[in-house]
Write a structure and sequence with these properties.
The longest helix is centred in the N-terminal third of the chain and has 19 residues. Helices cover 70% and strands 0% of the residues.
């Protein structure tokens, strides 16, 4: 995502485009650190989709990034993320049922 955002830096020429690129870099940094992971992933997906329509250097990669952002938003943060440190790890407990 960082490499693609740096490629967008060449294509963007307006203030609105620069603000989208800055938001994209900030949300990518949050995603790398594992801070507010679902929100950062949704923001990356929406901003990538917006940049796909704004400038078109690599339209195929934008679709891949949007799909990956949705997957990351649904999976959530990892075990060694800031979110896991702040809010605790989530565990799914499946109760044992015995057949009779």
């Amino acid at each position: 995502m960082i490499v693609q955002t740096l490629a967008y830096l060449r294509a963007v020429e307006s203030v609105a485009g620069w603000s989208i690129v800055v938001l994209l870099l900030a949300s990518t940094a949050c995603l790398l650190l594992g801070f507010v992971t679902p929100i950062a992933a949704v923001l990356i997906g929406l901003l990538s989709l917006g940049l796909a329509f704004w400038t078109k250097p690599y339209p195929i990669q934008d679709v891949d990034i949007v799909v990956l952002a949705v997957v990351i938003a649904l999976l959530g943060p990892g075990a060694f993320s800031i979110d896991a440190r702040m809010f605790g790890r989530r565990e799914i407990l499946i109760p044992v049922t015995r057949r009779q």
